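Figure S4 source data
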Amino acid sequence: MTQSPTRRLTLAFIVVISLMVIQSVYSSAQESGDGTPTQSATDELALKQSHVADKYQRLEMLMLKMAEFDATSNPRRSALLKRALAQSKEQHIRLQMNQLVKLLQQEQLARAIDDQGQVKTDLQALLELLLSEDRADRIKDEQDRVREYIKEVDRVLRQHRSVQGRTEGGG
């Protein structure tokens, strides 16, 4: 089964957005050069984390729209996107991101870093779920390719037996 260009593009878009969110989460925990965050540094971290939370909210909306759009043409992908959204809601990822913003604004940095570790873990699990569709397609494509190889080998064996039979029968 080959993927259409639109399908590959939308899947790539989801993966890129997910990676951007994860990268932003990583980078928002950085401190100033001397190891102690300054007031402006914590404000900047809170602002960056707020942007990450906004991006994640847009990602959730995009996944919902894609699930609705793909419901008839690709029900398997639609179900996967709905599972991803359900997992996101069960793990309260968006709420956790918004809580990180508040913690950073309140300069509760140690707790923010701890909570951010949980968000990172949840995002990685979500990304794995989203990438599972691509893995399943690759496995199916590989199985189709192996089936074609088997058919080709069977065809060559039949030809070989036919030639061998004609050679033995004629000689």
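Figure S5 source data
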Amino acid sequence: MILYFEMEGITMENKLLVVYFTWSGTSKIIAERIKNELNADIFQIEAVKKYPNKYITCVAQAGMEKLKKERPQLKRELENISEYKKIVLVFPNWWGTLPMPVFSFLEKYDFKEKIILPICMHGGGGLTNTVKDLKKVCTDANILDGTAIKKQDVDSEETKKILEKLVNELK
């Protein structure tokens, strides 16, 4: 027997969540576009301790967190991860991997049988180890191929086409 709930045409089988972490704002732009296209819920990962506004200082702090394998405390929690089957995870590439607050978020929840689409914002490094590290943390999830978007290309036609393709695949 298969049971599911339906609200306004959205079933538990296709309820989608967009989760993002941003420092410069580009991840938020992409996350909100996907949210709007798919009528999805959205959640922002935010560390309690704010990152510095200066790029070089932020990079140094992020590098130290990575070296120490820190897991920064988050401002808020997501209460209902079990409601979602599909999750779009938008994040910047920090030192070749996920930002430490993203690890804090991922290690807090059970992603068993969830479908996760990673979208990595970057300044030139591409995906590097982001998807590999995501798979290490979310071992029971179905991690889709990662998509890399250069932060300077957020508003480009190419990025619009990439997002359109991803949105159609998630429907």
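Residues 1-11 have pLDDT under 50 and may be disordered. The longest strand covers residues 115-122.
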